[in-house]
């Protein structure tokens, strides 16, 4: 009998036995319940979570489900909703992950589930979602007082209120959807160093020769107008940009109008000499025109040039910037009709990378603004 079995094992089996499996391939299909939802909103998102909780009492695959749900938050627009984060933490089973002794607590009892909860809290922190006491109780019932997620929650509750209102530039909880309103917030933030700065919104349609029909958000103060009036007509002005300013998770492109720096005046007179006192400007009874002090201003006069105005346009094109110069001329800057303006916009702003422009050279495009 043993000889017969040995002969069967040594004999090559016929190919008929393998023809059944020829051309077949095993594949693992991952089911994503968020894909089949036609409406991407908060109600449908919470509905998927409830379906997962009611499908299996043991809630197998809860970690994979939470990671998949975290990746779909932006698609459903719930990345800043505290109720949704608490619903995801509720998916984790209660009581099983609580450490029973000091060794389990120190060696991170159920590390996969604790790391998943920490990643969820980090996504809350990245989106600026402030936790509440109810979330603390949910984490306490899930991982216990010695759990790593509860320690992460306590650190968030300490630091996030400190940084929430730390910025001096107030922004609403919901940023405006209109790009022009967002540009106004950005320009106001940039020019807040001078409280006298006024922000105005113009339309390029006011210039008959303009090609781009768009809006312009321009900012200029009275001190900048005086600085522009004192610029030499033989020295060209430079429009530099595009630069980017971050408004929370949005970026706004802006441009600067730069002029020449005034030579610094050296005053060698004795400040203690009171033999020849002059009547200062700005008091009642003074007759004459107001001029800037001889010392440089630390706000508008920087090392690389004098900032004469700031703007953001709807298209960020050369034509819109040329319309901006002409509109500045009409609004209190008549000297721009005689001063040449150099545009250093070397690449369109829609490119992925924009190299920083170098100082103006003779090969750059020179455009003289005309009224």
Quick summary of this structure?
The protein is built from 13 helices and eight strands. α9 (133-143) runs antiparallel to α10.
The amount of beta strand, in percent, is 5-15%
Order of helices and strands: HHHHHHHHHHHEEHEEEEHEE
Helicity, as a percent range? 25-40%
How many E-type strands? 8
Total domain modules: 2
Class derived from helix and strand content: alpha+beta
| Rg, alpha carbons | 34 Å
Please mark out the parts with pLDDT under 50 across 5 or more consecutive residues, or reply none: 12-23, 348-371
Q: Give average pLDDT, whole number.
A: 81
* Alpha plus pi helix count: 13
Biggest beta sheet summary: 8 strands, mixed
Shape: elongated
Cα separation of the termini: 111 Å
Offer a few descriptive terms.
8-stranded mixed beta sheet; 14% strand; 371 residues; 2 domains; disordered C terminus; 13 helices; alpha+beta; elongated
Describe the structure.
With about 375 residues, the protein is of the alpha+beta class. It has two domains: about 25-165; about 180-260 and about 295-370, no CATH class. The protein contains 13 helices and eight strands. It has helices at about 1-10, 15-20, 40-55, 60-70, 75, 80-90, 100-105, 110-125, 135-145, 150-165, 180-190, 220-230, 320-330; strands at about 200-205, 215-220, 235-245, 250-260, 300, 305-315, 340-345, 365-370. Strands 1, 2, 3, 4, 5, 6, 7 and 8 form an eight-stranded mixed β-sheet that branches. Strand 5 (about 300) and strand 6 form a beta hairpin. Helix 4 runs parallel beside helix 8 (about 110-125), helix 8 (about 110-125) packs parallel to helix 10 and helix 9 (about 135-145) runs antiparallel to helix 10 (about 150-165). The longest helix has 17 residues, at about 150-165. The radius of gyration is 34 Å and the shape is elongated. The N and C termini lie far apart (about 110 Å). The model is unreliable at about 10-25 and about 350-370 (pLDDT under 50). It is found in: Cytoplasm; Mitochondrion; Nucleus. Keywords: Cytoplasm, Immunity, Innate immunity, Mitochondrion, Nucleus, Transit peptide. It comes from Leguminivora glycinivorella. InterPro entries: ECIST_C, ECSIT, ECSIT_N, TPR-like_helical_dom_sf. One of its GO terms (cellular component) is mitochondrion.
